């Protein structure tokens, strides 16, 4: 097996592991009450997004091996994201402000044309 095949093999194993963790998470979530599922909605979305990041990953063998040492990679990355989540809210607030400005500007343009 050459280096590229080895690299692809490790990345494939990593992606499969994340998919197994996601399947286990889904199974656990589906055993919960509707309220618990609702309360976990953000976690469900994020863990699906995290798993998607691994579906086409191309990490070095060293990086793939290091990631596979995590006891629960999906959960560990989710927890890391939660600690950094502030930037998400900043981006969302900026998007709301930008949309408000756009709507105000549009309203001014439309009301100016109506006169």
What share of the residues does DSSP label as strand, in percent?
A: under 5%
Helix content: over 70%
SSE order, one letter for each helix or strand = HHHHHH
Poorly predicted runs: none
User: How many runs of DSSP E, i.e. beta strands?
Assistant: 0
| Number of separate structural domains | 2
**Main sheet, how many strands, which sense, barrel?**
none
* Measured distance between first and last alpha carbons: 75 Å
**Radius of gyration over alpha carbons?**
21 Å
Give me a quick take on this structure.
The chain is 85% helix and 0% strand.
Topology overview:
Blueprint: H1 3-30, H2 34-39, H3 41-55, H4 61-68, H5 73-84, H6 86-114
Helix pairs in contact: 1-3, 1-4, 3-5
Verbal overview:
- With 115 residues, the chain is mainly alpha-helical.
- It folds into two domains: 82 residues; 30 residues.
- The chain contains six helices and no strands.
- The protein is extended.
- The model has no long low-confidence stretch (mean pLDDT 92).
Question: Which structural traits does this protein have?
Answer:
mainly alpha, 115 residues
């Amino acid at each position: 097996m050459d280096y590229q095949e080895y690299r692809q093999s490790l990345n494939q194993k990593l992606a499969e592991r994340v998919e197994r963790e996601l399947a286990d998470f889904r199974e656990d979530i589906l055993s919960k009450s509707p309220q618990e599922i609702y309360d976990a909605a953000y976690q469900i979305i994020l863990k699906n997004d995290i798993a998607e990041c691994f579906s086409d990953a191309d990490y070095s063998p060293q990086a793939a091996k290091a990631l596979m040492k995590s006891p629960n990679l999906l959960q560990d990355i989710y927890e890391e994201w939660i600690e950094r989540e502030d930037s998400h809210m900043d981006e969302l607030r900026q998007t709301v402000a930008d949309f408000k400005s756009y709507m105000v500007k549009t309203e001014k343009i439309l009301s100016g044309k109506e006169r």
